[in-house]
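ZP: hey, is the protoporphyrin IX containing FE complex queued? I don't see it on the tracker
AM: it wasn't, my bad. submitting now with these inputs:
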Amino acid sequence: SMNHESSHAPNVQNLMTGFVRPALRTREQRLNPFPWYRACLSQGTVLRDETSQSWDVFGYEEAQFVLKNHAHFSSQRTVDGQNVLGNYAPSILNLDPPRHTQLRRLINLAFTPKAIASFQPRIETITHNLLDAMKQETQGKSTEVDLVAALAYPLPVIVIAEMLGVPPEDRDKFKRWSDLLVEGPSDLRPETIMDLMTRRAAGRKELDEYFRNIVQLHRGKDDGTLISALISAQIENESLSLEELLSFCVLLLAAGNETTTNLIVNAWRCLLEHPEAFAMLRENPGLIDGVIEETLRYYSPVQATSRIVTEDIEVGGQKFSKGDRAVVWLGAANRDSRIFENPDTFIPTRSPNHHMAFGHGIHFCLGAPLAKLEAKIAILAMLSQIDEVSAVPTDLTPIISGFVYGVKSFPIQVTWA
Ligand code: HEM
């Protein structure tokens, strides 16, 4: 049976299947995992999942406890001291202190709030160019567009590409690579998992070669790109090794693209599913920050992350043992009624709104300000150019991934102002 197979799967396979739960398998379940979270939370903040041999952490306090306590809950992906990520250097996402601290400090030298804010005019220009292309095709009439393909996908890819100093012409390659990096197995058959692992390994290899070339082009040139800043970043004579640099580029691509795309699309889904919230925003565009924060909580683009227990410890009354895997369901913590009143209601004016969509603790998302800036610019630009907009009634197709939450396309009917 499937249970039997997956419980004996080697750990590296478990890394891929670890987020798949029987309750999250159908199209409807992937589009709406929230009733499952609610049902789990009513049973306990921490539950054991035998199929994946892991602990599921649903409660907000418990999720924070795990993510805060990096000494007991490791982000490293090693089995018997071996890096299971293959022959690649782990990125900061998969490192613990002290190396994580050192690398993050180096990266922070290049990835500063100032550097991100300086990108605002470029983000605005890119957004307007994409909107112009959308309008041109339809000659100003009411028309159906796919929000994902026309705006939400290309925007963050172009931004990251420009930051890293790679030409936007390569964005189709980027799409293929970044899709692959977040893709989950569609079922738990060993063939399916092996196939995905093989395709992913090939994609990772191509990406590595691609970025090797980019680094070569920017080495020694202080050309204002993020990549040249990363190459020259130094603290106490320490800098990023070539391997670490490549892994960071791959992480930026994976962590920065699909997530931001889904934030933009999920925000529009929220607005179109809640006409009163949409009317409020049209009346008062200043509500945009609240809309984005509430989207992050309500339709969290990243639903889960995981850790490995380094030492026996109790969480939410359950005893976790060394070597156990803990899956932290950010999307469930963000709907914990102990913290959020009416958690299943979309309330853009919610205050406070301390959601965990960007994680918590030392691995807190490095790109949070960038993602929010892009979403804000994209939504406000659309609002200013649109007279009417509605969702096209259709069956949405969820992205197949254990941790990314979003839809493959989102057709909307738009009348341009
Ligand atoms: C880490 C979510 C956009 C770069 C994380 C984590 C989460 C997250 C939950 C922590 C994972 C963990 O603790 O295991 C999101 C969401 C985004 C987004 C929801 C968009 C809405 C971005 C962007 C970038 C980025 C645009 C970069 C351009 C990173 C990096 C880390 C990270 C580098 C690792 C930080 C570390 O390990 O110290 N993100 N992210 N993210 N994110 Fe994001």
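AM: back. The pocket of protoporphyrin IX containing FE is lined by residues 67, 75, 92-93, 104, 160, 251-252, 255-256, 259-260, 263, 301-302, 305, 330, 357-359, 363, 365-367, 370-371 (CB under 6 Å).
ZP: great, adding it to the tracker
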